[in-house]
Amino acid sequence: MKDPQYGWWLPPDVSTNGWVVDQLLAIIHWFMLALFVGWGIFIIYCLLRFRAREGHSAVYEPIKAAFSKWLEVGVAVAEGVVLVALAMPAWAAIKNITAEVPENPVIIRAVAEQFKWLFHYSGKDGVFGAIGSEFISTDSPAGVDPDDEAGYDDFWVYGLHIPVDRPVITRLSSKDVIHSFKIPVMRLTQDAIPGLEIAVWYQATDTGKFQVGCAQLCGLGHYEMKADFVIHSPEGYQAWLDEEHAALGFDDE
Amino acid sequence: MNKLSILVVALLVVLLPVQSGGQAEKPAGTATVTGSVKFEGKKPRIRAIDMSGADAKCSEAHGGKRLKPDTVIINKNGTLRNAFVWVKSGLEGKSFPMPEGDAMLDQKGCTYTPHVQGMRKGQSLAIKTSDPTAHNVHGYAKVNRSFNRSQPAGAGDVSIRMRRDESSPPMKIKCDIHPWMNAYVAVVDHPYYAVTGEDGSFTLANLPAGTYIVEVWHEKYGVMEETITIGDGEAKSIEFTYAG
Fold first, then answer.
1. How confident is the model at residue B64 (pLDDT cuts 50, 70, 90)?
2. For residue B15, is it within any domain?
C-alpha cells in the first residue's frame, strides 16, 4: 500500500496513463525554464548594454532596421511552431488516453452534487438499474428506478473503490452544476456536466488509499467535495463488493 | 398629551392583551383526538448509509457502522414513524399562547435530530452542531425565507425565525456537505400537531370543540386527511393507513 504523500512535488502516480501526463508536464516545465532563463539573460544583457551613460542617451522610437524586423517575425514564428509542437503531443496524448478502452472493464457511475461525489455500482448482476432524474430522492440519490429489478442489487457509496490492474470506466454526471472529477494519483481530470454522461477510463498500478476531489469551483462547499479513493487488490475488491452486497440486507427477504 | 405619553399608552394597549393571555394558562379546550398511522403493504428497500467514504469523522461517530436513514421507519407494531399530524383547518382566527424557547434541531453523528418536527409560527429554530466536522445547513423553504449557512465544528447555533405557516408540505432542511442529512420542519400557527414515534400514535389534546380537518404527512408517502367533529370533553380516534 502506498501512502498518499502530497508534498511539494507531484503526488504519486499509480496509473497506467499517468506517465504520459507527467512526461508532458516535465517537457513543458523544462522548456518554460529554458525560455525563462534565455529571455532573462537577454533582458539583463539589454539593460546593461543599452543603459544611459555619458555620451549615450536612450532611443525611444522603434528601430527601423530590416534585420531586427525579420528577427522579430522569426521569433514570433518560432514561438508559434513551439506552441503547436507542444500542443500536438498533449492533444495526441489525451486522444490516446481516452481512445480505446481495454477489455473487461469495471464500470462505475459517478454522480456529482453540491458538495459530494456519489459512486453507483451495478452490484452482483453487473447491470445498472434504470436511471432518471425523476427517480432521484432521499433513498435513491443516484436516481435509480426503485421498481426496476436490475437496480435491486445496485448500491451507492460516498467513496470510490476500484481493483488494481484492471481498467475502470467511470461515467460522470452531475445533478446540479458543473463539477470536475479529479483523481490526482490517476492524473485524471474531467468535467461532470449536468444533462450529459461523460465516460473516462483509467487503470491503477498499485494499491492504496488516496482521494478524489473536485477541480471546478462549484459553490460554497467546494472545498468539502472530496471522497476516499481506495485501490484494492483483486481479492480485496471482491471482498469489498461482497461486504457492500451483504450490507444491502436484501437477501434475507 | 406629549409624544412620550402617547407612546406609553400605545404600548400598554398593545401589551396588555398579551399579558392577560399569558396569565390565563387554562387550555383552549377539552377535546382530544388520538390515533395512529399504520403502514400496510410492501416495505421499501432502504439502503444503509456508509459515511466513511465521504467524511471519516461522521462514520467514527457511529463506530464505523452504517446507518439506516430515517426516511421510512416501520415500527414493530406495523405503524409508520416520523409522520407529521396536524389540524389543517378549523382553527382559523383563534390565537394560542406561544411556547417558551426555541425549537431545536441538532446535528449529531452527521444526522439531524429530530428528523421531523413541528414548531410554532413566530418561533425560532435553533440549529445546533455537536459534530467535530463542518456542516452547511440549507433550508429549502418555500413560504418562509430560505437559508443557507455554513457551520464549522464548534460554531454557535444558527437561529432562524419562522414568520409564516409552512406545514403542507413541511420545509426540507438539508446539509450541503453531507447529502444524506435531511430533516423536515413544519411551521404551524397553533399548538395542535404531533409527530409519530416508536408506537406510531399521536395525540392532539386540549382542542376546542369544533369540526376539523386533520392531515397527516409523510415525506415518502405524501398526505392524507380526515374530517372530524368533536365536542367539549370528547375523545375521538382517527386511524390513517398508508400503503407501501
1. confident
2. no
